[in-house]
Amino acid sequence: MSNRLRLAIQKGGRLSESTTDLLAACGIKISKPDRKLRALAEHFDLEVLFLRDDDIPGYVADGVADVGIVGENVILEKGKTVETLDQLGFAKCRLAIALPRTFSYSSAQDLNDLHIATSYPGLLQHFFDDNGVQATIHEISGSVEIAPGIGLADGICDIVSSGSTLISNGLKEVETVLKSQAVLIASPQLSEEKKQLLDRLRFRIQSVMKAKQHRYILMNVPNTSLDVVTDILPGMKAPTVMPLVKEGWSSVHSVIPEHAFWNVIESLKEAGAEGMLVVPIEKMVL
Ligand code: ATP
Ligand code: MG
After folding, report:
1. The total number of structural domains that make up the chain
2. Is there a single domain that holds both residue 70 and residue 204?
């Protein structure tokens, strides 16, 4: 057996670009082969298998691949034994039940006796069981959203992100079955050597993800406002404060979480900060 870490990723589809972008940001370049199913990475002991996303949980569970990147929806549907290690923050979507716009819906009990088309029979049945619903599931593998329009089913259970596909098919979302995003999964049986490679990969992924969730901020602050401003700014340890050539002023640098960004900026302005610059961070190693 090779001591390279074998990573299974989607061959082509909604996960592919974000996955290869993430690997590239981790310093791992893979050249996508045209027809081949595998490729070696540059600068890391990694081999990449390009698969259909449905096959990734099985390959990882069987140990054919050591790790994989795939949507949580696919892992839970397949029910394979894999370890879910990290949420990766992309391919965010939900598995939802949708009915014709004109259907008068108030609770899950209204689903009783309906025929629902889906590519996720396992997760849907689970939802029905949890909610005491008796309904019929039609498993179909694609173009689920047209099923009610052609009389194949009363409603559907499918992946939704913006909901525009549902609307254009005359459907409305009535229940969320699952929220999903891309995750890193691992086989339960990894050698020590592979575990070490995986730790290195996860360390890089986490540094990239943390960086994406933060911004570096620089501003000029009158010294009389420094206490208020440094109270507002968390920073990694504490903000950096350096004197400006202009008397009575300082330059303050800090790192702020993206989600708090606008609130922090407003408070800083009120406190007297000027000339604020906000810059993206490429990697963040704590
Ligand atoms: P494959 O050919 O590999 O089987 P697929 O057609 O089953 O591909 P894609 O449509 O490429 O799958 O979607 C891959 C994953 O991306 C889904 O399982 C889901 O986790 C996520 N996803 C699907 N649709 C969306 C969407 N509209 N927005 C965000 N993420 C999505
Ligand atoms: Mg698929």
Report:
1. 3
2. yes
Please work out whether the CB of residue 13 comes within 6 Å of at least one atom of ligand 1. Answer: yes
pTM assigned to the model: 0.90
Find the largest Cα–Cα distance for the chain.
77
Q: Is the minimum distance from the CB of 138 to ligand 1 under 6 angstroms?
A: no
User: What strand order describes the sheet that includes 171-180?
Assistant: 136-139, 115-118, 155-160, 93-100, 171-180
215-270 pLDDT tens trace: 999 999 999 999 999 999 876 678 899 999 999 999 999 999 998 889 999 999 99
* 3-state helix vs strand vs coil in the chain, percent to 5: 30, 35, 35
* Residue 268 sits in the same domain as residue 155: no
Give the CA-trace dihedral at 191, 194, 195, 196, to 10 degrees. Answer: 130
